[in-house]
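So, could you explain the following?
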Amino acid sequence: MTRETDFSRLAHTWEELAKRMDEKGDHTTPAKLRQLAEKTKRAELNIAFCGHFSAGKSTMINTLLGVNLLPSNPIPTSANVVKIRGGEKAARVYTTNSGVLTFDPDTEMEKLKQFAVDGDTVETVEVSYPGTLLDEQSSLLDTPGIDSTDAAHKIATESALHLADVVIYMMDYNHVQAEENFNFTKTLKDRGKPVYLVVNMIDKHIDFELDFDSYKESVEEAFATWNIHPDGIFYTSLAEPDHPENQYEEFRGKLLQLIGSREELVEASVKSAAQHLIDEHVNVLKAANAGQRQQWEAKLDDLEAAGLDTKDAAAVHEALRQAESEAAALAERANEARRSMEKELSVLLDNARLTYYSTNEAAQSYLESKKPGFKLGFLFAGKKTEEEKARREEALLADLREKVAGNLDFHFKELLSKQPQLYGIRDEEYHAEVHATAIEITPEFLAAHIKDGAQSREYVMNYCKDVADGIKLEYRRAGLGFIERIVARIEQQAKEQGAEQEARLNVLRELAAVHGKLAELATVEEQTRQELLAILQKGEQVA
């Protein structure tokens, strides 16, 4: 595959990127990509000269070319980018309203110079001239001074940088350490451009004030302080060609070397420029979304949630998660409390032992007395029988009451008494009622559990079990009543707390929704970036 084919395929990739950007409604960046595609097809090397108005850019370019093609007055001269390349003599002015105008560079340069300073109607000026260090695929770009306050100048400079493969940044000897020099140069380096610094007019140097080596050292240190590491620094004087520190020839040699490395420089440059234009396109999308984004961000300012930075999306989502969890817990609190208390009550009742050997013995005697035909003796048998029945009944009642008091009633009241405080409830009346609870074991209760059947040991044990279960059932009913009273108080608490919690939840949900909208914008922008980078990567791999 030839290098020509490589560049052609890269150019096709830039055109595909431009088409995708057009579809997104960006009508600025695609034009730059199409310019980049045209440049890529020609594998054209552009060396841009940037710097202050007074740095001598135009004079330097004229000197390098060996022909005065650019005005060299110490006034703003290039409101537009002026491109000079090798080839047959021709001068073209690309205007906004009049199309392309042509001039003879030998006889009509004054007219051309007037167009070069007319930033309102002229887009670019191109001059081709034979016999210079340039060929048809190599160009020098003269850009407006970076210290211009004219918006048209800045736009023109930006356009030149977009198409520049190498940047020559020229500075006046006396203005090297101007802050704008550092800012501009750092921008270039951050964009991956090869940057060469030219400190011009070194004939202004007065050696007895500061030796020249110290001056050069101060220049290098100043740029290093800004974390700027240029690809080379040249010190030049066009006014005194024989100046001992003049590096004009070395500088010219570097340009020839760069021109000789045209294809390598162009390939690296256009790939870097395409990636930068993808970033620029995403910024265009962000600008288009700015109004909507500002509306959402203003909404964040309007909403308040105690103890929360509403602009922190992660904090908002965590606060919402926590609040929803608390709301769910609050809503479920009463049911959880009921389940917990009922479980504890069940465990207490299940583990309470109410019948022992003595109970079984008393129950057997009691049951015998309840059998039809039971009587004692012959003399006064009726009275003795009734007294014996009463005695046996009272013996069973006493045994059961003793077992219930020690093994169930005490623990029942202790359990139910402590439940309210576990849920932050204070209720003296409830506490008193729990301790006043009295489950009566009556003769009628004992009689109600007697069943027909032959009296056997198993029958007696089943009777005792039925009586114990009956006693526990009464305690369960009483306990459940107390539990429901606690649950009702918990539900009231939840209702009171829930109103305040719901208000916070509503704010947090609204905040989360706003952050969701902002995230959607960011996601679309990032997806666009990734889609374009994928096209770029695929194009680079094919090429």
